[in-house]
Amino acid sequence: MTNNIVKDDTKTRLYTGLPNADVFDRLYKHLLPRAKRLTYWSGSKKIVSTKAKRVLKKSPKTFGPKRKLSVKDELVMTLIKCKVGMNSELLGDFFGVQLSVVSQVLNTWLKFMAYELKPLIHWPDKEITKETLPHVYTSIAPNLRCIIDCTEIFIERPRDMELQAQTWSDYKKKKKNTLKFLVAMAPNGSISYISEAYGGRASDRFIVMDSGFLNLIDPTDEVMADRGFPIQSDLVIRQAKLIIPPPAQGSEQMTKGNVLKTKAVANVRIHVERAIGRIKCFQILKNTLPITLVPLANEIFTICSAVSNLQPPLVK
């Protein structure tokens, strides 16, 4: 069954999110030496919160039984879980194993793959970024380092009242519990930074300030965002510049210059929405994340972001 999927480009894209069978084969060969030495994790415990800003705790490092599937099967199972969002019961039937084995494989491989693929989310060198800046940015942001935005994923409602409050969000006007991530896109469209997960209640500015993102910014850098990121003064301290659409002028009509700038920024900012859209094409991030997987939300988002970076560049 696995070989039928990963030997065909169309099925590889559909089931794994990877662009073709050759990329899967290279990824498999890259992971194989370390994957052979993996031992199953026992799974994750309940959500624990010690700070209002964050709602996750890592899974315990308790080892379980030896593997019952091949390395390739385990890799494909994990990618199918992320890309298709298939529930664990169906995955068990698909691979002919018990539900407990599926749980052990996913808890092992989500952490393993996130660690191994994290380097694909790379903050590019300042000079290389400037030298390779796509022409669509040159007139409006010649020193553009990244475009930022936040995105949220729905999660199952926690039982803990404090966690319910921390994750409550009006995202897409659905009034549900969510986790929120800060995403930075390099000018070429690749994901260059993702924050850890925050409760959906956290503001965009709070995440920018708390996540350490600003430590990546160099003097003369330009950061593009929408009006929901009031971080101009925070960037000025770092001798950097925030590029956002001009503010609305109440009942007064915008000047022609502001109208043109608003359109120009919007036309460029759409690329970060497209980049996040690539991440969100993984069904696991579209579905409501079960409470059992919430402790692995950082790993899941990292895998989806890293795999999306294996696609062709968004902006040339």
Automatic annotation (TrEMBL):
Keywords: Metal-binding
Gene Ontology molecular function terms on file: metal ion binding
One Pfam family cited in the UniProt record for this chain: DDE_Tnp_4
Stretches assigned to the Transposase Helix-turn-helix domain: 67-119
Cofactor(s) required, per the database record: a divalent metal cation
UniProt keyword Glycoprotein, yes or no: no
Domain DDE Tnp4 stretches: 148-309
Keyword Metal-binding: yes
Protein name, UniProt field: DDE Tnp4 domain-containing protein
